[in-house]
Amino acid sequence: MVHTQLFTEKPDCAARLSKEERVYDLLQKLKISYTGVDHDVAPTIEACREIEDVLGIMPCKNLFLRNRQKTEFYLLLMPGEKKFVTKDLSHQLHISRLSFAEPEFMEELLNTSPGSASVLGLMNDTYQRVHLLIDEDILSQEFIGCHPCINTSSLKIRMEDILEKFLVHTGHSYVTVHL
To answer: MF terms per GO, please (predicted)?
Structure first.
């Protein structure tokens, strides 16, 4: 269930996890505006459809991937409507095989759990071990939807702010992919 009350400032953090509170603090520090909404757990793109309708944004799928050796990690942002074909992305990156990364890597590198991955988790990747991949269709959108490191809230943020403020702050760059 999606709560219809939208927020544009840091919500009361008494009932929120510290990792979510740190997201709001960083967005405030970077002067990144957002519109947010709280909702029931939304671990899948299907569960997020109603949320994206409330926020007025394109569904964004966030996939956390790794190479076979478990030495390279990737966060892929792609339209929720697109089908993910591992071999197509592996070919573009010149990697023999990509797999979904295990939950322990997601927790260690992004401080998130499955179903909560988003670009905002890169704030926790202080050694830039995660490579950001963004599908060209996501890049063409004015806004992106993302979880604040927990999948019981969603935020609508300008793509320009993510690219020019947030990623600059975290030290991450991105690679544009075509899926």
So the answer is: aminoacyl-tRNA deacylase activity
